[in-house]
Amino acid sequence: MKILINLLLSGVAVALAAWLIPTVQIDTYRVAIVTAVVIVLLNLTLGSILKLLTLPLNFLTLGLISLIINVLMILLADRLIDGFST
Length: 86
Description:
Order of helices and strands: HEHHHE
Radius of gyration: 14 Å
Mean pLDDT: 87
Strand order of the largest sheet: 1-2
Shape: globular
């Protein structure tokens, strides 16, 4: 139940980002939830591996690399999902 609530809140966060940022476009709320799920899955798999590999560089840049990796995960989700564009 907790996972479902987190996914729904992530979907709301994606929809809110689309409302606040003019360059982010989402077709429907269903696409927002799917986008949230894909971003979470990408961060759990590929994002974790990239963060582990760039740990020394991340330490030197005081976390800037984590921000860049998160942006790359969002851009990858943009490529994977129709109806979501940045």
